[in-house]
Design a protein that fits this description.
With 368 residues, the chain is an all-alpha fold. It has one domain: Growth Hormone, Chain: A (Up-down Bundle), CATH 1.20.1250. The protein contains eleven helices and no strands. The longest helix is centred in the middle third of the chain and has 43 residues.
């Protein structure tokens, strides 16, 4: 699988794997965490989730501009990891939300999310640029050996990025299991049993808005949510312990960031810095040449926007996994057996399993 690829690929992939671990924990728990901690409606929590992921993509442009202007890609990547770790540290502090502190605690949580998004913007695209430079350098070296060697080197680029993506999804496969397991363990230590539907009902009970079927459902679920039968159920205590368990899962994200940072610092000398693009010399063209070039540029732009259109709707639907998918699982699945967050492992599982199959298929086509 790794045969014939540049040596820096594995270290770059491992550096990215830890960061993706924290990212996928966030993807699995964010909407449900905002609802359980602050008593937000599903719609409000989904808006914060959407702004967070929008920030990740937009701030990648900022991270790219900073690295390009400073030509300090490695320093920008390090700053991104430190910034993300700081954001996760803020989220890991187990402060109980109350009416008295919600006015500043929710903005602090959103600020922590902004730090994570900004750190991701500094990190993600620039590390991928370094991987791209690995293959640029690899192809340049192989070109010295002849056309056949160069052709083989160019064929390695796509499979290299697929390997890189598999490592990302290893972190993504593990992460969705971490938060639910820590939360369930912490609840059990404190005499409670996990139930995904209880936090919303607890908030309504504390607000005095429960009645009818919802009140009956609350009474039934709360009675079964204590380890010792007959023990009185206290909604405030349950919410506090429930959310502390999620806070502790962010500590795992901090550790993952530190592992990524350590790997990157230990291997960065072996990684290349993306080459600065040299401005092309001004060339004069005839009117006919300009018309031909303009036509070709328009065709390429049409193709580009067609691809972008497909990508936009793909990610538009894909990122429902952390919002609509999680809420659906919470409300319509038996969460005593399968935590809603576990479903976030389905996508990375299939990426890991199917990537070698796809690589083998395209290798077969290339040989033909």
């Amino acid at each position: 699988m790794f045969k014939g690829h540049p040596k820096g690929l594995i270290s770059a992939a491992l550096s990215n794997m830890g960061e993706r671990f924290g990212y996928y924990i966030m993807n699995a728990v964010l909407v449900l965490f905002l609802c359980s901690k602050f008593g937000l409606s599903d719609a409000t929590a989904a808006i914060i989730y959407s702004c967070f992921y929008c920030g990740i993509y937009i701030l990648s442009l900022v991270g790219g501009i900073i690295a390009d202007r400073t030509q300090n890609y490695k320093g920008t990547i390090q700053a991104g990891l430190v910034t993300m770790a700081t954001g996760y540290i803020l989220l890991a502090i187990p402060i109980t939300a109350t009416d008295a502190n919600q006015a500043w605690l929710l903005p602090l949580t959103c600020f922590a999310l902004l730090m994570i998004a900004f750190g991701n913007g500094l990190f993600k695209g620039n590390l991928q640029a370094i991987v791209g430079q690995l293959y640029d350098n690899f192809e340049a070296e192989e070109a010295k050996k002849g056309e056949e060697a160069l052709k083989l080197a160019k064929d390695k680029r796509d499979s290299g990025f697929q390997i890189f993506y598999v490592f990302i999804n290893v972190g993504g496969l593990i992460a969705p299991f971490v938060a639910p397991l820590i939360r369930s363990w912490w609840l059990k230590v404190n005499g409670f049993i996990y139930n995904a539907k209880l936090p919303a009902l607890c908030h309504e009970q504390l607000n005095g808005t429960l009645s009818g079927d919802k009140l009956a459902n609350y009474n039934e679920l709360s009675a079964s949510a204590v380890v010792e039968a007959g023990t009185a159920f206290e909604p405030t205590a349950y919410l506090e312990i429930f959310n502390q368990g999620v806070h502790f899962s962010f500590i795992a994200s901090v550790l993952a960031m530190l592992i990524s940072l350590t790997i990157f610092l230990c291997t960065k000398k072996k990684l290349p810095t993306p080459a600065k693009k040299v401005a092309a010399e001004s060339v004069g063209y005839t009117a006919e040449e300009k018309l031909a070039m303009a036509k070709e540029i328009k065709q390429r732009l049409y193709a580009l926007f067609a691809v972008l259109g497909i990508a936009i709707f793909f990610w538009f639907s894909f990122h429902q996994n952390g919002a609509s998918f999680s809420l659906f699982a919470r409300d319509f699945m038996d969460t005593s057996k399968v935590a809603p967050e576990f479903l976030q492992a389905i996508n990375p599982f299939f990426v890991i399993v199917l990537t070698p199959v796809i690589m083998g298929f395209f290798d077969m086509l290339a040989r033909k």
